[in-house]
Predict the structure of DUF1236 domain-containing protein.
Amino acid sequence: MKTLVISAAWLSLSLGGAAVAQTTTVVVPGEVRTYVEKQDTPSVTFEGDVAVGTALPDTVEIHTIPDQPDYGYVVVNKKRVLVNPKTRAVIEVIK
């Protein structure tokens, strides 16, 4: 019986942790995505995988978005990428 209770508690905590992890998704306003898609910005080369959470180095210039201080963008390896300008972390790769 003890084993069953401990197993149930472990399962509950595991699933609860997964639910918390999923709530960290960033919802980007549509106007931010539209603005970035319309910009004619040259692409920079970045060696490595550009994925959500990747921090871009200081050598990559992050472009600002008018009236949107929480978002920046850059075109990396010919992909438009939304970035948190404070942390330089990739928020979304626009396809």
Observations:
- The helical segments are 2-22, 30-38.
- The two ends are 52 Å apart (CA to CA).
- DSSP finds two helices and four strands in the chain.
- Strands lie at 63-64, 72-76, 79-83, 90-94.
